[in-house]
Amino acid sequence: MSRLTHIGPQGEAHMVDVSEKSATRRVAIAQGAVVMAPETLRLAIAGDAKKGDVFGVARVAGIMAAKKTHELIPLCHPLALSKVGVEITPDDSLPGLRVAAEASLVGKTGVEMEALTAVAVACLTIYDMLKAADRGMRIEGVELVEKRGGKSGEWRRGKNDDG
Amino acid sequence: MSRLTHIGPQGEAHMVDVSEKSATRRVAIAQGAVVMAPETLRLAIAGDAKKGDVFGVARVAGIMAAKKTHELIPLCHPLALSKVGVEITPDDSLPGLRVAAEASLVGKTGVEMEALTAVAVACLTIYDMLKAADRGMRIEGVELVEKRGGKSGEWRRGKNDDG
Amino acid sequence: MSRLTHIGPQGEAHMVDVSEKSATRRVAIAQGAVVMAPETLRLAIAGDAKKGDVFGVARVAGIMAAKKTHELIPLCHPLALSKVGVEITPDDSLPGLRVAAEASLVGKTGVEMEALTAVAVACLTIYDMLKAADRGMRIEGVELVEKRGGKSGEWRRGKNDDG
Amino acid sequence: MSRLTHIGPQGEAHMVDVSEKSATRRVAIAQGAVVMAPETLRLAIAGDAKKGDVFGVARVAGIMAAKKTHELIPLCHPLALSKVGVEITPDDSLPGLRVAAEASLVGKTGVEMEALTAVAVACLTIYDMLKAADRGMRIEGVELVEKRGGKSGEWRRGKNDDG
Amino acid sequence: MSRLTHIGPQGEAHMVDVSEKSATRRVAIAQGAVVMAPETLRLAIAGDAKKGDVFGVARVAGIMAAKKTHELIPLCHPLALSKVGVEITPDDSLPGLRVAAEASLVGKTGVEMEALTAVAVACLTIYDMLKAADRGMRIEGVELVEKRGGKSGEWRRGKNDDG
Amino acid sequence: MSRLTHIGPQGEAHMVDVSEKSATRRVAIAQGAVVMAPETLRLAIAGDAKKGDVFGVARVAGIMAAKKTHELIPLCHPLALSKVGVEITPDDSLPGLRVAAEASLVGKTGVEMEALTAVAVACLTIYDMLKAADRGMRIEGVELVEKRGGKSGEWRRGKNDDG
Fold it and tell me: Is the pTM of this model over 0.80?
């Protein structure tokens, strides 16, 4: 018996049937980071100090991408997201920018992919806006931090429950 | 004078004007990885041996996402991509799956974002297809490997040219 | 305390969390107009008399755009619209074409933006189909006429309730 | 002979064939405004002073919408835009926010619809972000200011050339 | 009284209002086929034997297209699909490939168009992947096989009930 | 050596590299039909006589779908289409509606898929608009009629050249 719920009996891909699942409140939080040269980080922060655009554009891009998750990830269900938020924080210890996203809805499927997609696209947008200064930036550690709701209940990174 | 070509004179975001740039052949190669538990990797490979779906679906998702780059990244130009390819390779040393993507076109702007977007979305798709088994997976090292063409010429990771 | 519900505590943009709102029937009606030269209006009406295309194409464009509202307006929620209708009426007193749209759903958020987007895109389509004859046309008075449903209840233009 | 180039011989709608047109540099500038209560304008400006989000989000929305013009306006050609810029300026005399957009490319068709779509969607986004405070706002005067390039050459509002 | 529910009182197109309909479980199954030369079918099957790509890519394309139905068919409602599956089977008697799709949701509208769109786009994708070998292929017999749920209840091809 | 140009050396799917191809004028014509009960056809024609909507909406849907071909068909290149036209003709001998589409561009790849996609989506739209009266309709004979341009030159149905 396969544990891969997206794979059918003969191995072919399909969208999992969620019509019998109950609609509960579900939340997912994901994070990631763009690691860059120290002077690129200074540039991003200075740009932000002036007009906030690197941070602001990446935040909007992440939110809009969460709404496109089902268009990007072939077997994701279309969802009526009730909230998406994206936070971007400079971190000298990387050096770089940390990105966190939270998605939630009342529905039949989890929103992990929506939170992860928001993080990934916010990171790609940061790369795009700073790449003229630094093509060597890397996107690192895009991962789920926490999920709540649904049959599998709560999952938190570090507790390693596969809920 | 700002080095951030997406930021206008007062700091506001805009699409860079490329109408005076010449149309040359441009290529970009990007890479990344999904790090997972050893048994998740075995599951992915076994699924692939049967029908190839984790690998196949993620490859298609990456290719289709490259064509959506300008819809996802706010200040990217719409491009007439002439090629996108995505490769996914298991790597026991991670353990996990390595993803590489190549994009090319004859045009006025580079295709770095298209290659990076293909990698990021293929990684997200791998996560989606395996997450029932392992929510702790991480997307790591999404980065540009090489670019060719355009005024700035060739850039390769390790040579640190900011072309 | 901010009255701008799309702005977070530090001023950053986010989608408002609507998961605790109740799902009620919501309706919004919006209107607008394309003002044009008298002969352009005659041309539009004559074209309509023959095959109805200026009117028909703009109506379809408005309906389809309402379904894309959450892709266009960064902080709008994706909605399961239950109805969209668009009406286009010639008005010699402008002279030009008046556009009205009604959107409704049973859901947690209002549909003002969907009705307004339908009107705006129907107006843009009218401009597009007639611009070979008249580049000087103007889109005027795109506004909400009425909304019903939700916690804030009914709002009607002229009563100036900010519901 | 019809002057409506989008209407075929029997009146049915079609995309005009532009394959024989020459690729020249084309520019279009459009404008519009959101008229609001004086206190709403103060709110928008104060929000901008803190983090720039109303202005920043609307600017990004306008730029992204310009890239979607051919998806919204049924008979518009898909275009390889080389630039889109959006400016938003408070104007106490309205009172409200003025929006201007410039689009350009080297190609076979004009970019009037792209500039107008950027303005319209930036205005809709401003409405969305401020509507909790003021549902009575109106979008006014969305119009072409200027176009350059192509067979019909230059057109400027006020000169009334229908090029 | 018109039986065409998409046509309004004066004949203009609109999305049917479904807000008063009850949300029930609805299922639709559709089918179709791509008829091709015998050697093209052998090529497709051999390609599948090696890596499964013609079959795999067409299956993914069909699933993703079902999610885009409301973007493609102007008067279709946006739906929260709970399942889409696509099956592709070689048939020497055509000769060619048979495609079947099932869509389901708990909602207010039927999912016939989603199942038919999945079939049509899977067939187009098969054509695309094999057209270098055989431009003469034909897509045949795209039709509804069965629907369940909703006020009209069950419909099955052959019973000719117009439910 | 594979004749399947979308399949790579190990069988994996990829977009064919067209960057070395020359940009020539390319045209493709495709056709298809929706077969229906005689009374459904009368209904469609009568609806058209009044306001033209079944025909008009399906025509617009076909044109807009052609522009979305590369989003629907995973390995299709994004194209700068220079023309799309869709014709719908009643045919009592089916009985039903015949659909024909022509697509053209000056570019590096053929436009067969764009013409076929326009036909398929126009047929699906006809089905959608008439399905309340007749769920038994069938889409038949979606096929390429003719292509011109490109290295393979002209292909016409009946001459069976595999260009």
Answer: yes
